[in-house]
Amino acid sequence: MTAATSKSRADASTAEDEPIHILWINAGLSCDGDSVALTAATQPSIEEIVLGALPGLPKIAVHWPLIDYECGPDKGADTFIEWYYKADRGELEPFVLVIEGSIPNEAIKTEGYWCGFGNNPDTGQPMTTSEWLDRLAPKALAVLAVGTCATYGGIHAMAGNPTGAMGVPDYLGWGWKSKAGIPIVCVPGCPIQPDNLSETILYLLYLAAGQAPMIPLDDQLRPTWLFGATVHEGCDRAGYYEQGQFATEYGTPQCLVKIGCWGPVVKCNVPKRGWINGIGGCPNVGGICIGCTMPGFPDRFMPFMDEPPGSRVSAAASSTYGAIIRRLRNITLRKTDKEPRWRSKGRELHTGYQASW
User: Fold this and answer.
1) Cβ neighbours around 252 below 10 Å, total
2) To which H or E segment does residue 99 belong?
3) How far apart (Å, rounded) are the C-alpha atoms in residues 185 and 267?
4) What pLDDT is recorded for position 3?
5) DSSP assignment letter at 307
6) Sign of CA dihedral 289, 292, 298, 299
7) What is the pLDDT of residues 255-308, one digit of tens each?
8) Do you find a cis peptide bond into 298, omega within 30 degrees of 0?
9) Cβ–Cβ contacts within 10 Å for residue 256, how many?
10) Less packed terminus of the chain by CB within 10 Å, N or C?
11) What is the DSSP string of 254-282?
12) What is the maximum alpha-carbon separation in the chain?
């Protein structure tokens, strides 16, 4: 074996031993609710991802403020923010950049800053979240925007806000792609559905390991398998809508459209998937859908708990044909909700069978 061959194999072995880093920045305008939600994931759990407990999963190193309990900003077993400085210097390969929280516009004021994360090592001044995004996004294997704030701006980006906040695609550009050719991946939710996030992280890790095709996204950069259907299509109250039966107050099992549910037009899988271990989810527990996974949230869905535009027409039509459908189904029900006549005891067989004895 030549020295060059030995060195190349050693380099390959070293590369295989290097983990894929996940750099999580939750320093945008946010409540950290998406980080909290991820702790409830079960399919897969964040523990299974971090510990590499799933088949074929590459080695992972997660730098996430919520679980890095040993490290402080500057002191501790390790300096937490040093990993981000390493990535900025090009010393961390490869890494997935996770952004939680909306990105404020730092250019619209004369002094101060809206939000930041640590200090600039060159100046000692606070490093804004947008500057981190400028520095790290071009070096990242993939950029994952988690929660509605990071994906589309969310609450902080609603009309009248002073920050000019926006989502990651608004900031980087909707056509932006990472150096690996991966578009921005958006997993909205306010907060995010835990398994939607953990499953997307898992997909990106398998993609990085060459074990999955390019992640399929819709035109709003959401994973298609998670956001391909509406709330209404997965809701256990949808049958009531079809039959024209609508709730007029909370606490009843009928369709919630008339008291403000946007389910028929909102792309979200929560009614189908539940919240934790398949249990819960807004309409499943009697709550209306307010459209929190949509790019226009919250402005296009307010005022909440008011009948959505267009629902009056559709609900009126549903009430009309639903009444006819209910009558027809009741006729069928009366005929099918009975035992057949021939099921009786005695010496005679009434089933119509022609006996050969």
Assistant:
1) 15
2) strand 95-100
3) 16
4) 44
5) P
6) negative
7) 999 899 999 999 999 999 999 988 998 999 999 999 999 999 999 998 887 777
8) yes
9) 25
10) C
11) SB-GGGT--GGG-B--HHHH-SBTTB--T
12) 103
Question: Whole-model pTM?
Answer: 0.84
Three-state DSSP state, 3: helix
Those residues with Cβ within 8 angstroms of residue 250's Cβ, 6 or more apart along the chain or in another chain: 259, 286
Residues of the chain with pLDDT under 70: 1-16, 69-78, 309-313, 315-319, 321-322, 329
Q: Are 31 and 23 in contact (CB under 8 A)?
A: no
Contact 148, 154 (CB under 8 A): yes
Tell me whether strands 116-119 and 126-128 are parallel, antiparallel or unpaired: antiparallel
Amino acid at 238: A
Q: Which two tokens stand for residue 92?
A: 């961390």
Q: What is the pLDDT of residue 5?
A: 41
The whole-angstrom separation of Cα 150 and Cα 173 is 13
Q: With the C-alpha atoms ordered 253, 259, 262, 268, is the resulting torsion angle positive or negative? A: negative
Cβ(133)–Cβ(172) below 8 Å: yes
The answer to whether the Cα torsion of 341, 347, 349, 350 is positive or negative is negative
What would the pLDDT profile of 118-130 be if each residue is shown by its tens digit?
899 889 899 999 9
User: What is the distance between the alpha carbons of residues 217 and 175, in angstroms, rounded to a whole number?
Assistant: 12
Predicted pLDDT at 71: 64
